[in-house]
Amino acid sequence: MNIDEYRNRIDRIDKQLVTLFCERMDTASDIAAWKKEQKRPVFDPERERQKLLEVASSVPEELREYTASLYSLLFELSRSYQNRLLGTASELTAQIQGAIDETPALFPSDASVACQGVAGAYSQIACDRLFKRPAILYLSSFDAVFSAIESGLCRYGVVPLENSTAGSVNAVYDLMMNHNFRIVRSVRIKVDHCLLVNPGTRREEIREIYSHQQAISQCEKYLQSFPNARVIPCENTAVAAKMVAQAGRRDAAALSSHACGKIYGLSCLESSVQDMDNNFTRFICISKKLEIYPGADRTSLMAVLPHEPGSLYKLLSRFYALGLNLNKLESRPLPNRNFEFMFYFDLETSVYSPQFLQLMGEMPTLCEEFSYLGSYSEVI
User: Fold this and answer.
1) Enclosing H/E stretch for 31
2) Which of 107, 146, 283, 343 is catalytic?
3) Is the pLDDT of residue 142 over 90?
């Protein structure tokens, strides 16, 4: 046989598979109606477990894993279809709809906003992109920003979440597990690091360079050109600039922004010193209250999944079954729980889509723990 004949055979088999798939989904619809009448849950784990064992034992050994994967996906599709037919309204979907109805049409221009660091920090730059006239409260740590939101000290907080070259800000992800908040908007800021010094300082005089650890990572190759200088991490790039300015030393420098140079009276010895020019940091704007502004097309979730094989696959297959695009997946270890993780997801989906509402109704049943962090749009 030639390749065309093999392909014709595959086409015939696929036609049969499609016909049988439609028949299977029609039957799943009938089962959904029966379960509704009998007040039975859609998910029957014991039935699915028995079915997987049955189909796996009915095929040659070399095909068992493939067959189990195929049927696991079929089960996810069937449950998703049944939930769509039955409706998945829940307390969470009611909260989301209430937030959509109650949130103003326009994002606020004036607001009290908590930021980590001091004047000139990239968090302040992000804040100024989000708000026209923010009243900024500078705090010493990310933890303090989250606490300010929870306590009602500020209406909003702005914190960095990830960088395009240095990766995720793990400290923020860890704090997200322990605080009650919602994401209401995000923004991407181009990061342009400069080597700032006190006026008159020459390059060869520099013996200490201060900056935030993320900035240090983003300028790693550049810093190799200072073999005689110590690189010293501090809590913020703006704090680094402020320290160098206050010390007045000619042997110290800071990796910071142009804005910090102007604020603290420092000279820019060299600009754009980051290793990659395409360097952006994504900041999230958080609030204690759930606010969903018009045009929200990104949703963030956190979930703890059962500590068993296939639990993450089952959740991801549900996203796939609903046609939802996953933009980001991050995992962080759970404190005091060996080899267990909190998973963070960013989904690209309109808050108004029925698939989104269906997922929100199903998520609590798919996870051991689940947090809806908010639906929002991103400022580019």
Assistant:
1) helix 3-38
2) 283
3) yes
